[in-house]
Design a protein that fits this description.
Layout: H1 2-9, E1 11-13, H2 14-22, E2 26-27, E3 33-34, E4 37-38, E5 41-47, E6 58-64, E7 68-71, H3 75-86, H4 91-102, H5 112-115, E8 116-117, E9 123-126, E10 132-135, E11 155-156, E12 163-164, E13 167-168, H6 172-180, H7 183-200, H8 208-217, H9 238-244, H10 251-263, E14 270-272, E15 275-277
Antiparallel strand pairs: 1-7, 2-5, 3-4, 5-6, 6-7, 8-13, 9-10, 11-12, 14-15
Amino acid sequence: SLLRRLLAERELTATEAREAESRGELQGLEALSDAAGLKPGFVALTLLPEEKEPKPPYAVAASLSESALELALTQTELASLAEDLNGQPSVQEILSTATAAKDQPDVEAEDDEAEAHTYPFHSLRCLPNGGMLFDATSFGDGTRSTVGMGATGRMECAYCHFPHSKMSKPDGRLRQRLNDASDQELLATFLPFIFKKAAMEGLMPRVNHLLELLKAEKYETQSGVVALGKFRPMRMSFMHLVESSMRQLPPHIRAESNRIKSELPPPAVTHGGSGPSLML
């Protein structure tokens, strides 16, 4: 299928992408279409598995040049998609991968769980009078809010009765690499994730202008990206990704971010596979 081919090759020619769209296997290219045809840029795509596969559509970020459509996914995300399609890898594959990683001194060896700490994040706290306070505590049951350290990750808190989800947090070495990176390198690293997050959270077209402003700041076409290792940016909120895309957001981008937040409805708890979370 188109999805399996993209996972293997990570790109299609622009002609093949248009043909796949006409067959209904790929959705989202219309965002880059104009009277002259397709124009280069970032886009959030929906990939549809074959009809015989009982799989949901996949939302992925991609970049389109004049000649090719390329998936903007990390190795971790590719592995996750491949696992969804093909099932869990065998024990032999897991062991061989672990052995290969130990033989490479440049590969970060931190355990994935060691990287995911309980992270202070803004959330709703319900007040006795029925109002809601937007603060940095975790979720409460009406009058009983707890701080993030009140329960371990993915375990229900006996005090506030909600699970406390862990959020991904860069380790020391990654934070140093991010601090050393230029704005162009940070934009090249985080822009694909920002577009993907916007599509997955249903923020289009509300944030379209913000995305265009961020794209306009990316003027170097050949800038490198920061090696993220095992860190998973998609666990970050949309606004956190935007804040991470530059050392300091320019005033006009900051103003647009604030405008979007001011027009959004009050924050609401959404229940997903990892427990309650906030979109922004």
